[in-house]
């Protein structure tokens, strides 16, 4: 995200609906982009998760996403936004403060020609989707009460640190010159590492669930995936904070890379497994979206295609080959393969950004001439040391995000474990949604009727059928 000079708040008369600094076009696009990103989560990931898991986990998986979306918003306006983008407290953290006062919300944001209210909303949807992505690693067994505690704690003690360090103008990695156009590090690398770490502490699903976990509704899953893909128009297109040429380039690069990645993954499935997997295509789509995110508006179209080829092949290799041969990786039950689709793809995108970042495009985005030079352009311009420095900063960012998220996520999980179990009971995992929420996703004929007087509806239904047969 852009880190150009702060705009100091201006005095706003109570009756002045359109102050001189406000661009109605930019404000309208920013609100639209934010809503597109929000729809990636609700309903996008809600129905993707709900369709991609076993039938007995459809409600729980969808509800984990819905809860996180709501919880993050409340925490965000009460303290999270200012910790991520507010007054300097430390090189990696801002001072906690509320973001609800009219005097604050109606003033100009720290960047862009729109008010703080718009910026708070825009940044919220990014924070929310990060938590929802983490949920993908622990579907099918995490105690819902533990998840309710995990969301505000991880937002506060992990997400805000990454966001401030990499996106805030005062962040230490921002000052070093890291390029993370729209969240390859802050969102995808962090969620992938945190999700995998949380999956380790929560423990695996039931053995038979882990061995066979077919989607209960692939068409519904595809609908969610489609919303995720098209919603990325706002994800990457909103980060220049204006409706300029950079936004247009970011949107086109995003979709070109994603389509290339999907086709690459599909070809590899056909070559090695002789079948075109729908689930594989969705994974290839996801890795393409993630890989282009740190680079979307600062690389050329040909680079987006190369990044798509890489994102469709390297995460495929780590998932299909490395993971299956690694005893260490096999021990961790990452339900939706968040490690590969987000952490690996996000790291890959960050490194490739260090290679392909175009100085002129970086100048448009960051408004700082000469600082951001991809390695390949460093060779072309005779600034090789600057190019190597950019790659080094990108690697430093990966090291920081990985290390910090392993530590912070582990501490959060261990803290929660003091109060509630991280993992559901074996009995609850046998039954699924009916045990956890007293609800089921699909009711056929009278299967969804409620019966009173039993611990679980399923048990009473079985008793009723047996009595009728007698």
UniProtKB/TrEMBL annotation:
Amino-acid biosynthesis recorded as keyword: no
GO molecular-function term, one example from the UniProt record: ammonium channel activity
SUPFAM superfamilies per the UniProt record, alphabetical: Ammonium transporter
GO CC annotations on file: plasma membrane
Transmembrane segments: 28-50, 57-79, 120-139, 146-165, 185-203, 215-235, 247-266, 278-296, 302-323, 335-358, 391-420
Annotated membrane topology: Multi-pass membrane protein
Top-level division of the source organism's lineage: Eukaryota
Chief location bin: membrane
Key words, A-Z: Ammonia transport, Membrane, Transmembrane, Transmembrane helix, Transport
Compartment annotation: Cell membrane
Record-annotated Ammonium transporter AmtB-like domain positions: 28-442
InterPro entries: Ammonium/urea_transptr, Ammonium_transpt, Ammonium_transpt_CS, NH4_transpt_AmtB-like_dom, RhesusRHD
Family, similarity comment: Belongs to the ammonia transporter channel (TC 1.A.11.2) family.
PANTHER family: AMMONIUM TRANSPORTER 2 MEMBER 5, AMMONIUM TRANSPORTER MEP2
Protein name: Ammonium transporter
Species name: Acer yangbiense
């Amino acid at each position: 995200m852009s880190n150009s000079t702060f705009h100091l708040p201006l005095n706003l008369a109570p009756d002045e609906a359109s102050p001189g600094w406000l661009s109605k076009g930019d404000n309208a696009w920013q609100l639209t982009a934010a809503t597109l990103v929000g729809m990636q989560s609700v309903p996008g990931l809600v129905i993707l998760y709900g369709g991609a898991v076993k039938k007995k986990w459809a409600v729980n998986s969808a509800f984990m996403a819905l809860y996180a979306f709501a919880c993050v918003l409340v925490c965000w306006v009460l303290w999270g936004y200012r910790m991520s983008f507010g007054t300097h407290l430390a090189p990696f953290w801002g001072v906690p403060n509320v973001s609800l006062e009219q005097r604050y919300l109606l003033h100009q944001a720290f960047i862009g020609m729109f008010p703080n209210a718009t910026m708070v909303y825009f940044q919220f949807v990014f924070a929310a989707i990060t938590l929802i992505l983490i949920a993908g690693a622990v579907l099918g067994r995490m105690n819902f009460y533990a998840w309710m505690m995990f969301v505000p704690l991880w937002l506060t003690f992990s997400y805000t640190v990454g966001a401030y360090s990499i996106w805030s103008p005062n962040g230490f990695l921002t000052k070093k010159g890291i390029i993370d156009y729209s969240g390859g590090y802050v969102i995808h690398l962090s969620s992938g590492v945190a999700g995998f770490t949380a999956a380790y502490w929560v423990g695996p699903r039931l053995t038979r669930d882990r061995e066979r976990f077919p989607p209960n509704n692939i068409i519904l899953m595809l609908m969610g995936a489609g919303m995720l893909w098209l919603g990325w128009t706002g994800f990457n297109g909103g980060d220049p904070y204006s409706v300029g040429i950079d936004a247009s380039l970011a949107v086109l690069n995003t979709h070109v890379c994603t389509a290339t990645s999907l086709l690459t993954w599909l070809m590899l499935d056909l070559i090695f497994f002789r079948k075109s997997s729908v689930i594989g295509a969705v994974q290839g789509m996801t890795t393409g979206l993630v890989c282009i995110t740190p680079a979307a508006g600062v690389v050329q179209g040909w680079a987006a295609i190369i990044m798509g080829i890489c994102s469709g092949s390297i995460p495929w290799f780590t998932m299909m080959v490395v993971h299956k041969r690694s005893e260490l990786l096999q021990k961790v039950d990452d339900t939706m393969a968040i490690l590969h689709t987000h952490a690996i793809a996000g790291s890959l995108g960050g490194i490739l950004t260090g290679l392909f970042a175009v100085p002129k495009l970086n100048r448009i985005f960051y408004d700082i001439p000469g600082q951001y030079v991809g390695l390949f352009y460093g060779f072309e311009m005779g600034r090789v040391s600057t190019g190597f420095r950019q790659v080094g900063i990108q690697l430093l960012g990966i090291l920081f995000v990985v290390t910090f998220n392993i530590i912070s996520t582990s501490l959060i999980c261990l803290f929660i474990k003091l109060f509630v179990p991280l993992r559901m009971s074996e009995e609850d995992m046998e039954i699924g949604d009916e045990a956890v929420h007293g609800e089921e996703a699909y009711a056929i004929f009278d299967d969804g009727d409620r019966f009173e007087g039993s611990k679980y509806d399923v048990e009473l239904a079985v008793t009723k059928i047996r009595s009728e047969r007698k």
